[in-house]
Amino acid sequence: MEQIFIDETFDKKDFEDSPLARGEYENCIFKHCDFSNTDLSEIIFLECEFIDSNLSLVKLTKTAFRDVKFKDSKMLGLHFENCDEFGLSFSFEKCSLNHSSFYQLKTILNF
After folding, report:
1. Where are the domains of the chain?
2. Does position 30 have pLDDT exceeding 80, yes or no?
3. Count of other CB atoms within 10 angstroms of residue 34
4. What is the largest CA-CA distance in the chain?
5. How far from each other are the two terminal CA atoms of the chain, in whole angstroms?
6. pLDDT tens digits for 67-100?
7. CATH number listed for the domain at residues 3-11+20-110
């Protein structure tokens, strides 16, 4: 059974050592978190914020980002075209997106 997390704040968590639980995250904030090289496949993020976090080389197979904000985050080598396209919507503010791909995505992108 998938877990549901609502209005939670995750601060200074290292998800490389302890992976993020599969499930749905609604209105959650991830601050100073390290997701590098982790698998976020099939996780749903609704109206979440990622602030000053490292998401480099994260696996995004069927990951849902719906109205998600990324701020001051390192996001190198991500393949957003592998995300769940239904309702896909995210924005970026002062993020490093080098070597990331949005190939053939038809979504709302705000840079």
Report:
1. 3-11+20-110
2. yes
3. 17
4. 36
5. 35
6. 999 999 999 999 999 999 998 999 999 999 999 8
7. 2.160.20.80
| Residue 81 backbone phi and psi in degrees, to 5 | -65, -15
DSSP string, 44-107: EEES-EEES-B-TT-B-TT-EEEEEEEES-B-TT-BGGGS--TT-EEEEES-B-TT-B-TT--S
Beta-strand relationship, 23-26 and 108-110: unpaired
AA identity, residue 90 = F
In terms of C-beta distances under 8 Å and separation of at least 24 residues, what long-range contacts does 104-109 make, across chains too?
A: 105/80, 105/81
**Are the CB atoms for 70 and 52 separated by under 8 Å?**
no
Q: What does the alpha-carbon distance between residue 26 and residue 37 come to, in Å, rounded to a whole number?
A: 23
- C-alpha–C-alpha distance, residues 68 and 46, integer Å: 6
